[in-house]
Inverse folding.
C-alpha cells in the first residue's frame, strides 16, 4: 500500500469492564475516574502497544501535515508546501529541485530544532517501567528516540538519517543537510548514488519489515493506544482494528475526531502532553 502522510491531533478515554467511555475536551488529571480505569487495565496487561501521530509532536513546535489553519498554532505543512514536490516521481525526475524543496520543508518543520515534549517523555517512562511493549509511530522527527524510547517502529522512516538510492547505505542526516545547504544538490553517496531522506515518499509503500512488525505488535496487544493521530492515513490507520480483532482494548487520544472514535473502548479529546503524564501518574497511584 502507498502511504499518504501523517496528520495530527490527540485523545484518551476509558471505562471499566469494557464499557465505552466518551469524554469532552479538557484537562485530564490522575484523579479522573476514566483515566484510573484505563491505568488499571494497563497495569494488568501483559502487552501494551502505542501508535503515535503528528499531534504528539505539535507541542514541540512541529506543524501537523493537515488540518485547518489556526491562530494559536503553526499552519499545516500542506497549506504552505505542495505534496507533489515530495513525490517519488519528483525525486527521480528532478533530484536537485527535490532537495531544494526538501530544505525548505525541513526549515518549516524543524526550524532551529525540536525537543521532545511531555508526551514523548511519558511514553519513554511507560516503556522504562514495563508498561509499554512497543511504540509505533507515523512521525519521522525522531523525537521518541530522543526522549529515550527504545522499542520504536518508525513506520514512515526517520529524518535523522539519509539513505543512498543506489546502494541503500544509510548515514546521519545532519552532515548531509549541511552539504545541501552549501549547494551540493543533490548530495551523493560514496558510490555515486543520490542520497535522499530515509523517509517514505509519496508514491512509495511502507517498508514491509516495519509494517509487518507493527501488525504483529497490534495482534499481540492487550491494550492498544492511538495517540495524536486522526487515523485517516492507511495502512497505519488499520492497526487499531487489527488490535481490536485480536481482543485488545483500544484507546483513542486525540484533540480532534478520528476515524475510530465510535469503535474505541476509551475515547476522549485531550492534549497528549496532559493525558500521557496523567496516565503515568495514575499508574504510580
Amino acid at each position: 500500500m502507498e502511504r499518504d502522510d501523517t496528520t495530527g491531533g490527540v485523545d484518551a478515554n476509558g471505562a471499566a469492564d469494557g464499557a465505552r467511555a466518551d469524554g469532552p475536551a479538557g484537562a485530564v488529571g490522575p484523579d479522573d475516574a476514566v483515566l484510573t480505569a484505563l491505568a488499571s487495565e494497563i497495569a494488568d496487561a501483559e502487552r501494551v502497544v502505542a501508535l503515535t501521530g503528528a499531534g504528539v509532536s505539535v507541542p514541540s513546535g512541529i506543524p501537523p501535515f493537515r488540518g485547518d489553519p489556526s491562530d494559536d498554532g503553526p499552519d499545516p505543512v500542506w497549506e504552505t508546501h505542495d505534496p507533489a514536490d515530495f513525490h517519488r516521481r519528483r525525486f527521480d525526475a528532478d533530484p536537485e529541485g527535490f532537495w531544494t524543496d526538501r530544505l525548505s520543508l525541513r526549515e518549516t518543520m524543524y526550524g532551529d530544532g525540536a525537543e521532545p515534549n511531555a508526551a514523548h517523555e511519558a511514553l519513554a517512562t511507560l516503556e522504562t517501567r514495563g508498561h509499554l511493549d512497543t511504540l509505533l509511530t507515523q512521525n519521522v522527527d525522531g523525537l521518541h528516540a530522543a526522549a529515550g524510547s527504545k522499542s520504536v517502529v518508525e513506520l514512515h522512516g526517520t529524518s535523522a538519517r539519509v539513505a543512498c538510492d543506489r546502494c541503500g547505505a544509510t548515514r546521519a542526516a545532519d552532515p548531509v543537510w549541511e552539504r545541501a545547504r552549501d549547494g551540493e544538490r543533490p548530495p551523493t553517496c560514496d558510490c555515486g548514488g543520490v542520497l535522499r531522506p530515509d523517509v517514505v515518499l509519496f508514491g512509495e509503500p511502507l517498508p514491509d519489515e516495519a509494517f509487518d512488525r507493527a501488525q504483529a505488535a497490534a495482534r499481540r496487544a492487550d491494550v492498544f493506544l492511538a495517540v495524536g493521530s486522526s487515523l485517516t492515513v492507511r495502512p497505519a490507520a488499520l492497526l487499531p482494528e487489527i488490535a481490536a480483532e485480536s481482543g485488545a482494548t483500544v484507546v483513542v487520544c486525540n484533540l480532534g475526531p478520528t476515524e475510530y472514535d465510535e469503535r474505541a473502548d476509551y475515547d476522549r479529546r485531550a492534549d497528549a502532553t496532559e493525558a500521557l503524564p496523567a496516565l503515568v501518574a495514575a499508574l504510580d497511584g
